[in-house]
From TrEMBL, chain A:
Name the UniProt record assigns to this protein: ABC transporter permease
Keyword field: Cell inner membrane, Cell membrane, Membrane, Transmembrane, Transmembrane helix, Transport
Keyword Transport tagged: yes
Membrane-protein topology: Multi-pass membrane protein
UniProtKB/TrEMBL annotation, chain B:
CDD domains, sorted: PBP1_ABC_sugar_binding-like (cd01536)
Boundaries of every Periplasmic binding protein domain copy: 28-281
Compartments where located: Cell envelope
Name this polypeptide is given: Sugar ABC transporter substrate-binding protein
PANTHER family: D-ALLOSE-BINDING PERIPLASMIC PROTEIN-RELATED
Gene Ontology terms: cellular component: cell envelope
Signal peptide start and end residues: 1-23
GO MF annotation terms: carbohydrate binding
Entry keyword annotation includes Signal: yes
Keywords of the record: Signal
Automatic annotation (TrEMBL), chain C:
Disulfide bond is among the record's keywords: no
Residues that span the membrane, as ranges: 20-41, 48-67, 73-91, 96-117, 164-184, 214-233, 266-283, 289-311
Protein name, per record: ABC transporter permease
Matches recorded under CDD domains: TM_PBP1_transp_AraH_like
Molecular function in Gene Ontology: transmembrane transporter activity
PANTHER family: ABC TRANSPORTER PERMEASE PROTEIN YPHD-RELATED, ABC TRANSPORTER PERMEASE PROTEIN YPHD-RELATED-RELATED
Classification via Pfam families: BPD_transp_2
Lineage, broadest ranks: Bacteria, Pseudomonadati, Pseudomonadota, Alphaproteobacteria, Hyphomicrobiales
GO CC aspect terms: plasma membrane
Record carries keyword Transmembrane: yes
Subcellular locations according to the entry: Cell membrane
Length: 324, 329, 319
């Protein structure tokens, strides 16, 4: 960002980088949505509802933030939804068996991360296209989860643990604090660390990245591990919120998470996007769904509306980039 | 590469042979909708227990994609090749599976319809519950507990599902019986816990005073309870299914009641009918379980874990019959 | 002149010695024949072929689309919507022809939108078709109000369960379209252009070929095939259902990838796609015959996809 003087008029002009511009537009869109919804229904701009929206967005954000890193490298992780299911069920088992939420949480995170590492190995070392590798992994995870759960549910967790999902601190839901935490950490990682910059480089030009000495394979495994670990985080919050584990938790979250990343401005070709953009994307998506619920719009319209928004957001992005 | 293939070629058969059926006694093929809804697990366990006690074998067929119509149709075609002695059938969709049932009829395999009443095809018998009465009775229980007045919301199940249509109709008819009860909203939660939770949250935003929640299944009821807890609001909640989780919630006072949709008994009786028909013993044409509302006073029998339950005796089952058998072959 | 520039463009695929999918297909067939007496019967093999046709009808155009470095995620939802429209039209007019026209219309319309979004607006295919998938899904739910559409006259069933000269009709339909796609891809200029769209788009532009129209045509072809598949699906269920084919596009993409078509280089192999579709069909059928528990089946399907592509990856690495 720089301030430059315009010679003819003498007035200072603000130069924003492309990406910053896109982010601002998106924030603007989110803001406009809020305004529109406040006008459309009284129920929107209440403390409770705003907090609900933030909490719902956080679940989506956990998943989408890990996905962002994968998409930055030009890949895709279709297994995140199934990962949530397996991690949640394993974590639930541990909590029930040991009575310790801490052990359970560690189990969930480790399981999610382990799945992510497997994905990374398949993509980096076995050179299987990420679409196929993670799609196959999705099925394998489902198979393991269904076999393990055998159609049952695990329910009833200690109240302390459940605070993670449904508790409040200073009036704000705890998942929101987690979301802000991961938002800051993710943005710092991507923008300010060497590893983060390397990930962007890999997405922008894998061949050049390799030639400049970036350990591409290790970074790829890293991003998939992150994606899996974030699925693990999401699984713990889910578990705490729902107070039970079933085989198909998180199943329906994969595509909305990818949509959130895309609405946030990331490119599937890699090298473009940001964790903050994904945050705004998740917010926009959740606002729209919340609005539709409050306005009692028939649930059948939801997939259609989501689809149109994704296309529109990406199109706007491209138009914006082409102009400059 | 070839070494790996060879390894798999010897390892796989060893693993699979342990699951291959070596028929000893009748083989009953049991079809259910999916692997994730605990209700169908109770049906499967009921079938297993019944078959074991009668000396027959049960093989389960579940679509790999939950509720997939094309997959269940393919599974029927594949199963017909294996010629099981009989089939116990829960259709993924009660209308779309009719061609599949007709294929079973053409192959002259006797088949019993369980849970969702199929819209066509010939069956030995139908074993199910009366979703309408279940919805009606459970709703009446809640409305009476509310003192016959207040605001209620309905959490519907999957649109187009037969159980949903009947249960919600029962809810609505019960509400009509109580003049001072107001129905604020009726929204679908798709029988899912998370959706039930989120829909309830949204409803609580739009309606500051909700006294009762009629949920078409237990998963959504529990979801609604979590939402209420999270917002520190109170309401009476009922669900349907009588799952273990619901019983636990009734014990702890969070759930008011749950309509007993006894999948275990349905699986038992359905399998018993199939086996008896094969052995030329007397069967019944239809068993529709009476609606029972599980609440704090009568939950004890429902608190028994699945593996410890026993099927009703045939005499008990026949006593519940609502129709005489029709000749199907 | 334009042909000169194109004739050097590769129109064929360098097929690896023994493709992973062939190993998988042959291996599974041998395995199941040995373990299951009912597998190798005419009736069962016929079942596998018939059960695979709908997926094949989607996988064939998907091969072409993937060859253009694209993807069509909307196929399953479009198939579902087309099947509903067909069912509704047939129920009210009793005319199969009108119903089929409706289904094709739906397919072509979505194909046009997909093609336009991808080629004119330059929206990445994943995003564009993700969006249209949502649109089609939503429309399917709205049009049907979540319920099955029944009341379809019995004769429609014949499309799926009938036979011609002893061969089940679906197999003939599948074989016919396979032949059509083979000719289209390997013996027409359109096919050559499609190959070039994947690896060599600049050559096309230099040669003055209007590749945007080609791309739109490819997606419209996909939509039309979804319409044809809708006929078979409606005939099979004797009804229209709003969630019948949701997710089938991923199966089609997996089958195409299994068959050796690459996402990145514009190499396409129709026969590979056929083998990919059959491999999945054989696996599912064999596991059903062996009464393998459903959860294990689910894991096997994932393992198959990974395994076959792993084999291919190893092979191309060696060469």
């Amino acid at each position: 960002m720089s301030v430059a003087g315009d010679i003819s008029t003498g007035a200072p002009r603000l130069h924003l980088s492309q990406d910053m511009q896109q982010l601002l537009y998106r924030l603007l869109a989110a803001g406009l949505l809020c305004v529109a919804l406040s006008i459309a229904t009284d129920a929107f701009f209440t403390t409770n509802n705003i907090l609900n929206v933030l909490r719902q967005a956080s679940l989506l954000f956990f998943l989408a933030s890990g996905l962002t890193l994968v998409i930055l490298t030009g890949g895709l992780d279709l297994s995140v939804g199934a990962n949530i299911g397996l991690s949640a069920c394993l974590a639930a088992t541990v909590i029930k068996a040991t009575g310790s939420p801490v052990l359970g949480t560690l189990t969930g995170l480790t399981a999610g991360c382990a799945v992510g590492i497997c994905n990374g190995l398949m993509v980096a070392k076995l050179r299987i296209p990420s679409f196929i590798a993670t799609y196959g992994m999705l099925w394998v995870l489902h198979g393991i989860t269904y076999y393990y759960m055998a159609g049952e549910t695990i329910h009833g967790f200690p109240p302390g643990f459940r605070q993670i999902g449904s508790g409040y601190f200073l009036g704000i839901p705890i998942p929101v604090y987690l979301m802000v935490g991961f938002l800051v950490a993710g943005t710092l990682f991507a923008q300010r660390t060497v590893w983060g910059q390397q990930i962007y480089a890999i997405g922008a030009n894998p061949v050049a990245a390799r030639l400049t000495g970036i350990p591409v394979d290790r970074r790829l495994i890293l991003v998939y591990a992150f994606s899996g670990a974030m699925a693990g985080v999401a699984s713990i919050v889910f578990l705490a919120r729902l107070n039970s584990a079933e085989g198909d938790i998180g199943e329906a979250m994969t595509l909305p998470a990818i949509a959130a990343v895309l609405i946030g401005g990331a490119s599937l070709f890699g090298g473009v996007g940001s964790v903050f953009g994904t945050f705004v994307g998740a917010l926009i998506l959740t606002l729209v769904l919340n609005g539709m619920n409050l306005l009692a719009v028939n649930a059948s319209w939801q997939p259609l509306v989501t689809g149109v928004i994704v296309i529109f957001a990406v199109w706007l992005d491209m138009v914006g980039r082409r102009r400059s | 590469m070839l070494k790996l293939t060879k390894m798999l070629a010897t390892a796989l058969p060893a693993a699979l042979l342990s699951t291959a059926a070596l028929a000893d006694g009748e083989t009953i093929a049991v079809f259910t909708k999916n692997q994730t809804n605990p209700y169908f697990q109770t049906v499967r366990v009921g079938a297993d227990v019944a078959a074991k006690s009668l000396g027959a074998k049960v093989v389960h067929y579940i679509p790999t994609k939950p509720d997939s119509i094309p997959e269940q149709l393919s599974q029927i075609e594949d199963v017909i090749v294996k010629k099981p002695s009989a089939i116990v059938f829960v259709p993924v969709d009660y209308k779309a599976m009719v061609p599949g049932v007709e294929q079973i009829n053409d192959a002259k395999i006797p088949v019993v319809n369980v849970t969702d009443r199929s819209a066509g095809g010939k069956f030995l018998a139908f074993v199910g519950a009366d979703d309408y009465s279940l919805g009606l009775e459970t709703a009446r229980y809640l409305l009476k507990t509310m003192g016959g007045k207040g605001n209620v919301v309905i959490l519907e199940g999957v649109k187009g599902s037969l159980t949903n249509i009947d249960r919600v109709r029962g809810f609505n008819d019960a509400i009509k019986e109580f003049k001072d009860v107001k129905l604020l909203a009726s929204q679908p939660g798709n029988y899912q816990r998370l959706q039930g939770l989120q829909v309830m949250e949204n409803l609580m935003q739009s309606h500051p005073q909700i006294d009762g929640v009629l949920a078409a299944n237990d998963a959504m009821a529990i979801g609604a309870i979590e939402a209420l807890d999270g917002a520190n609001r109170k309401a009476q909640v009922i669900g349907i299914n009588g799952t273990k989780e619901a019983v636990d919630a009734i014990k702890s006072g969070k759930l008011l009641a749950s309509g007993d949709y006894n999948g275990f008994v349905q699986g038992c009786i359905g399998t018993m009918v199939a086996i008896r028909a094969l052995r030329n013993e007397a069967i019944v044409g239809e068993v529709v379980l009476k609606p029972t509302v599980v609440n704090a006073s009568n939950y004890k029998p429902y608190d028994v874990p699945l593996d410890a339950r026993t099927c009703p005796t045939w005499e008990e089952a026949a006593a519940m019959a609502t129709k005489t058998p029709t000749k199907t072959n | 002149m334009s042909d000169q520039a194109l004739s050097s463009a590769p129109a064929r695929l360098r097929i690896p010695a023994v493709p992973g999918v062939a190993v998988a297909l042959a291996g599974l067939a041998v395995l199941f024949s040995a373990l299951s007496p009912g597998f190798l019967t005419a009736g069962n093999l016929s079942n596998i072929l018939v059960q695979s046709v709908i997926l094949l009808l989607l996988a064939l155009p998907m091969t072409l689309i993937i060859m253009t470095e694209g993807l069509d995620l909307s196929m399953g939802a479009v198939l579902t919507l087309a099947s509903l429209v067909l069912a509704l039209i047939v129920v009210s007019t009793q005319s199969l022809v009108l119903g089929l026209a409706g289904a094709l219309g739906v397919g072509l319309a979505f194909g046009l939108v997909n093609g336009w979004l991808v080629s004119v607006l330059s929206i990445p295919p994943f995003v564009a078709t993700l969006g249209t998938m949502g649109a089609a899904q939503g429309l399917a739910l709205i049009v049907s109000d979540g319920q099955s559409v029944v009341g379809i006259p019995r004769f429609i069933r014949q499309v799926y369960s009938g036979e011609v000269a002893g061969i089940p009709t679906p197999i003939l339909i599948g074989a016919g379209f396979y032949a059509l796609f083979h000719v289209l891809l390997y013996h027409t200029r359109f096919g050559t252009y499609i190959c070039a769209l994947g690896g060599n788009r600049d050559a096309l532009t230099l040669a003055g070929v209007k590749w945007k129209r080609l791309l739109i045509a490819a997606y419209m072809l996909g939509g039309a095939m979804a319409g044809v598949a809708a006929l078979l699906m409606t005939a099979r269920m004797n009804s229209g259902h709003p969630t019948a084919a949701i997710g089938m596009e991923f199966d089609a993409i997996a089958a195409v990838a299994l068959g050796g078509t690459s996402f990145e280089k514009g190499n396409g192999w129709i026969f590979g796609t056929l083998m990919g579709v059959l491999t999945v069909g054989v696996l599912r059928n064999g596991l059903n015959l062996l009464a393998v528990p459903s959860s294990v089946q689910v894991a096997c399907i994932g393992a198959l996809v990974i395994f076959a592509l792993f084999l291919d990856g190893m092979r191309s690495h060696k060469s």
